[in-house]
Amino acid sequence: MELKQAMQERRSIRGFTKEPVPRKLLEEIIALANRAPSSMNTQPWHFHVLSGEVLEKVRKGNTERMLAGIPPQREITDHGAYGGVHRERQIEIAVQLFEAMGIERHDKERRQDWVMRGFRQFDAPVSVVVCFDRSLEDNGTIAHFDLGAVTYGLVLAAWDRGLGAVINGQGIMQSPVVRQHAGIPEDQVILTCVALGWPDESFAANSVKSRRRPVENAARFVGFD
Ligand SMILES: Cc1cc2nc3c(=O)[nH]c(=O)nc-3n(C[C@H](O)[C@H](O)[C@H](O)COP(=O)(O)O)c2cc1C
């Protein structure tokens, strides 16, 4: 697949078949993502690739704690509530997803069900937990940038092989659960995770194409004729 096609057609995938993903394929994808640039070539990332029983335990722990009302516990500063244009874009994609899924605005039960799916990482067969070296915690936010680059690379490489993925904060919202079951070393900080698997073509939300503002709104050009 051409890079241009992958970048244009990729979208977050939130419904997966039960078919397992071969470890060899995951290794190939990670090898590609691993080529990402990083500040001073520090390569601060670590991938913990979870499947099977461990992933089920993470899902269960996440779900139980959220239902019990335990406040989210992340290892990086949470983004909090968005406002202004960011809130507008957040609502836009939520409306698109709910419309595709036929979830009515006032259907509290189905909306809650959708949120809980997120905490189960959309029942994906694989979850890649992305961490960075704790020793860089006092070096500003540049490691977060590096992890963003490597994670987008991972998602694109997965898409190129026909796999679908969604980067998600929900899956690591109860980070102590992930840390415990996945055995994340203390010298690493959990930043995000990527739910990954073979897209379920019949899952309506998978065809949602999120909108982007035009280039003239996202960029300005200085010093051109
Ligand atoms: C840092 C980050 C965290 C995200 N967390 C979630 C999440 O918790 N749940 C979810 O459904 N999608 C999550 N997403 C996916 C975004 O909603 C998605 O990328 C955005 O709406 C644009 O849609 P697209 O990926 O289909 O282009 C996250 C994406 C990023 C980059």
Brief account:
This protein has helices spanning 3-9, 23-33, 52-67, 84-101, 108-119, 142-160, 175-182, 215-218, and strands at 45-50, 126-133, 164-168, 188-197. The chain has 225 residues and is α+β, with helices and mostly antiparallel strands.
Q: Could you describe the 3D structure shown?
A:
The chain is of the alpha+beta class and 225 residues long. It has eight helices and four strands; from the N terminus they run ααβαααβαβαβα. The chain has a four-stranded antiparallel sheet with strand order 1-2-4-3, with helices on both faces. α2 (23-33) crosses α6 (142-160) and α3 packs antiparallel against α7 (175-182). The longest helix is centred in the last third of the chain and has 19 residues, at 142-160. The two termini are 35 Å apart. Keywords: Oxidoreductase. This is Nitroreductase.
Provide keyphrases for this structure:
4 strands, alpha+beta, oxidoreductase activity, Nitroreductase, binds flavin mononucleotide, 13% strand, NADH Oxidase, 225 residues
